[in-house]
Amino acid sequence: MPRLMPNSEEIEFKDKFIERYRKLTDWEAFKRYSLSFLRRSVRVNTLKITVPRLRKRLEKEWILSPIPWCRQGFWIEHRGRGEEHRRDVGNLREHALGYIYVQEAVSMIPPVVLDPKPGEKVLDMCASPGSKASQIAQLMQNKGALVANDYKGIRLAPLGLNLQRMGITNCVLTLSSGHTFKGHQFDRILVDAPCSGTGTIRKSLKTLKMWNENGIRKLGGQQKVLIKTGFNNLKKDGIMVYSTCSVEPEEDEAVISHLLEEEPDARLEKISLPIKRAEPILEFEGKKYDPECKKCLRIWPQDNDTEGFFVAKIRKT
Q: Is 245 labeled as catalytic in the residue annotation?
């Protein structure tokens, strides 16, 4: 069992939030894991260093445990105890040199599912701060063209710095609202959509204060626009991955169901990964979603002691 946060019994959930999540999952397990410390994890940047060399550099002071669904991913824990126990992985020299990227374990899934190839033309529509964009470039071996886009200039600053630190050379940064992309044809597209973040409570407790049903519905509408725009910019037989760090059906299965209804050429594909998963939501609060959504990957925090996450893989036929 993960270690609970201090004073976790004093943290309050809104009544409507509790009512909703009792319908969706094992509420007590979800609550317990959402109020527990999140394991630190890193991804080795093989553009700059091999996995064995990185492990050799760190293993005297750090325990590296492989993440099953990402060959370059590791949970990382300091060997010290008491006051000597460190959690500040971002202060490591290896981080500054771009040998590792501090990235949550399930956040590594979308690029793995996207499976970009060297030489392809790829779009990361909502790229800041660059964890998935740098992972995509790494899988492309810095060959081909990666367009890393975001919709606010202030978000391009950390994106650019992180890509530079990781040694990415096949990438161009663009500043554009996702829905304004027109006429481009990409081999693969990642739509890691802005969301409510209800899968990330254990990393950001402010999510509980910000949560409200109207906000969820508004985000769902924006996500439907983004995913359709992404699909329209995809080549025939191209692959698009849609992901969120939300566990709200309106932001996940409802968005995928909407795309399948609007775009006859969209086909969901199964995601085969060594990870514990939950059953996708096919009906919620009187609304039924396309049965094909059973091919999506829905992850609750209690499933793998991670954040909550949702991933769908779509092919344009």
A: yes
**Residue-wise over 103-137: b if at least 16 C-beta within 10 A, else e?**
bbbbbbbbbbbbebeeebbbbbbbbbbbbbbbbbb
165 SS3 class:
helix
Sign of torsion, CA 155 161 167 173?
A: positive
Where exactly are the structural domains of the chain? 41-102, 105-316
| In contact, 190 and 111? CB cutoff 8 Å | yes
| Fold classification of 105-316 (topology level) | Rossmann fold (3.40.50)
3-state secondary structure (DSSP) of residue 231: helix
3-state secondary structure of 249: helix
pTM listed for this prediction: 0.97
Low-confidence ranges of the chain (pLDDT < 50): none
- Identify which of 149, 120, 125 has the alpha carbon closest to the alpha carbon of residue 231: 125
- pLDDT per position as a tens digit, 2-41: 899 998 989 999 999 999 999 999 999 999 999 999 999 9
State in words which class domain 41-102 has.
alpha beta
Q: Which helix H or strand E contains 123, and what residues bound it?
A: strand 121-124
Q: Which of 171, 195, 245, 296 is catalytic?
A: 245
